[in-house]
Amino acid sequence: MTTDSDIHDEPRRAPPGPDAEGPSSGAAIGAALGRRVIALVGMMGSGKTSIGKRLATRLALPFVDSDGEIETAAGMSITEIFDRHGEPYFRDGERRVIARLLGEGPCVLATGGGAFMDARTREAIAQAGISVWLRADHATLMQRIARRSNRPLMRTADPAAQIERLLELREPIYARADLAVDSNDRPHDEVVSALITSLHAHLRASLSSQAAS
């Protein structure tokens, strides 16, 4: 896929936008974050990219998609990487790309559906960021994924059974995230507002804990 030097190429980031929550909300979260990253985890189709972009705009932070970074570094699509090199090869590159992105300062980072399954990636996110599980049920995921044809793990005769199998495997791991926000079939802006509320509460609790220690 790439060499070690390839995956450390400068990422392409979407420019930050205005803080639609008002200056105090974005500024408060930004100040409390410091150099940490907001890492969105969850299943394919849970809304990590679309919700992540909206969240980044409202917090005036850059948005980064780890799958996009991998494709740029490799010069091929995720599907092509799976086909040519296999999933273990892809996961190794994914882990290294996410580790690099976590060291580049505050942003909203959308991770691939399987990224959080890697123990080293979970530890790296815990050290350098706040993990947020975008939780969606089977019906919602099926509805969203049915509109796409670029998911390597969904090239199967029974996509519904595959989604169910992945949910059973991954949900106990996703549940280890710092925060969880439902992203079922409701407006994305509503999900973003719920996410911002959860981030505020989490960061306030973290600051209070630090002050008390």
Relevant terms:
five-stranded parallel sheet; globular; 9 helices; 5 strands; Rossmann fold; single chain; disordered N terminus; alpha/beta; 213 residues
Describe this structure in words.
This protein has helices at residues 23-33, 48-59, 66-74, 78-85, 87-102, 119-128, 138-145, 159-174, 188-212; strands at 37-41, 63-65, 108-110, 129-135, 179-182. It is of the alpha/beta class and 213 residues long. The protein has one domain (6-204): 3-Layer(aba) Sandwich (Rossmann fold), CATH 3.40.50. It has a five-stranded parallel β-sheet with strand order 2-3-1-4-5. It is globular.
Concise account of the structure shown:
The chain has 213 residues and is an alpha/beta fold. It has 9 helices and 5 strands; from the N terminus they run αβαβαααβαβααβα.
Strand and helix layout:
Blueprint: H1 23-33, E1 37-41, H2 48-59, E2 63-65, H3 66-74, H4 78-85, H5 87-102, E3 108-110, H6 119-128, E4 129-135, H7 138-145, H8 159-174, E5 179-182, H9 188-212
Helix pairs in contact: 1-9, 2-9, 3-5, 4-5, 5-6
Helix content: 40-55%
Spatially, the strands of the biggest sheet line up as 2-3-1-4-5
How much strand content do the residues show?
5-15%
CATH homologous superfamily label: P-loop containing nucleotide triphosphate hydrolases
